Structures are given as C-alpha cells and as structure tokens.
Amino acid sequence: MQQQISLYLKLSEGQFADLAAVARASLAFDAAVKEIAYVLDPSLEIRLELESGTEGSLSLNSIIKTVKEKATDRKVLAAVAFTIVSWLATDIRSYVVQDLIDAIVKEDRSKSLSPEEIKAIADEVAKAIKGQVGAKQIKEVVSELDKDHAVQGVGITTNPDAKPQSILPRARFKEFISGPNETTEIKRTRTTDAEVTLTLVSPVLIKSDRKWKFSSINGEFGASVKDEDFLERVLSGREPIVMVAGISMTVTLETKEEFVDAVWVVKERNILRVHRASPAISQENLPLALEPKSNDDEQ
Questions:
Q1: What does the pLDDT look like over 217-276, one tens digit per residue?
Q2: Is 101 left (phi over 0), alpha (psi -120 to 50) or beta?
Q3: Looking at residue 57, what DSSP letter applies?
C-alpha cells in the first residue's frame, strides 16, 4: 500500500536549491510524516521513498509505503498525507477540514474515496491538527528552507504532476517558524432546519430571550422562539395557548451543531417558525359513538 506525497519548492528564476538545505528539510519532512503516521496508527510501519525530482521549481516526489499492509492502511495513509498538506495551507485557519480534504481529493483525481471515507479521514485530520501532530517538524522544514534564498515558496501536494493548491511564500517563512505552537482550532459546524412536531413543556409568556422548553422523542430541550408574529399573537391573547398537558406544536426547528472529539454536539436550537399549535386530543374532544338501541326503544 502506498500514498503519493510531494514537497514542492518554488525557486527563483535561473537558480537552483542548495543541496544541504534541501537535505536537512527533507529529513525534517520525513520526520513529520512518520510522526503523523505514528500518532494516527502506532502499529503502522512506513518508509518515505524519494521517487523523483524536477528542476526549475524543485519537487521532491515521494511515496509513503507501508512495510506490512493492513485493511486500514488506505485511509490512514490518506489521513497522513492530508494532515501534512494541511500544515502548509496558507488559509488553514479559515478552512473547514472536510472542505480542505474535498479540495485535495479534487486536485488528486487518482483518489477514489467514498463520502464515508472522506468523512472518516477528515475526522482524523481534524484531531491531528488540533493536537499539533507534525507541527514542530514542519516548522523545521520551513526553517531549513529559509536558509536558502533561492527558495521562494514551499508547498505540499498529493499530486506530483501539479503544483500545490496552496504555497507558503518566502515572505511568510519567519512568521510561520516563530508563530505560536497553538493554532486556531479548526471547527466543523453544521446547521440544519427541519419541520418537526414537538410537545410544549413550558412557554415563556413575557418578552424575553429566555428559552421555551419542549420535549420530543429525544427528550426535553430548550429553544428560543424566533417567530415574532407568533410571539406577538400569544402575548396579546390573539392566539391563546390553553394551559393543559400535551400541547402539540408543529414548527421549523433550527439545530446548530459542532463536531467535538469525533461527536456532533448540539450547541443551539431555535424555533424559526410556528406552523400550528393545538391541545392534545382528549376523550371529550373525540366524537361519541352512537349508543346501540335497546330492546325497549324498539317497542
């Protein structure tokens, strides 16, 4: 099992890279790859092999190879490659990890990853970035290249036939090297809207930002009611809510979640619109069946 990975150096026109600087940077790059691989899967044995190089702008095309193949190698090797690519993405702080991986997969059309595999890889990359896995070694790569003025930029790609989508320019080398070890945490968030039927537990009958309480098949929760027209009708008495148990409300529920430690965690719920509210159907609301006629009535 193997995975392509290339360290791309943008050189000044007509100049060549210093061999010693490139060698030291290559050793740091090798250490970064192995550090990431070890953290993602300690049982994985890999080696980084130099496949080829090109002049002009130097691309050290390498292959991450497993020593002993396992069923999980495909996703782990992809996660290793995408993590190390992520470290030199110049706008990593604004990226959602899965968006970054989607972009990398599109760049490397040889990848035939399923949506489920991409999500699994994105989760591993997010945890690796949050844990600063490989960050020290990547800084060493840039530090060594900073000593060679022929190098005007550096990037990493999984496609040896193309330039990386993101190249760290020489002007930012010092900033990258001396920057804080803690990066802004990459967050994955999602917002979903759905029309659902809830049971009202307790309303808030004053003008307030306090949350109404509802129950659903998943238990009780609080949600802010953002439907101003509905609130105005309720507070003015034009849409009275009868104080009985089991009031049913059909609403558009907005749910905001954040991916934390490999789990989607609900951070906020809002009722965007109330479509209808009605009391629970009770026995007295039901139409009564006609009583059967007695023998006496027929006489």
A1: 778 999 999 999 999 998 888 877 777 788 899 999 999 988 776 567 889 999 999 998
A2: alpha
A3: T
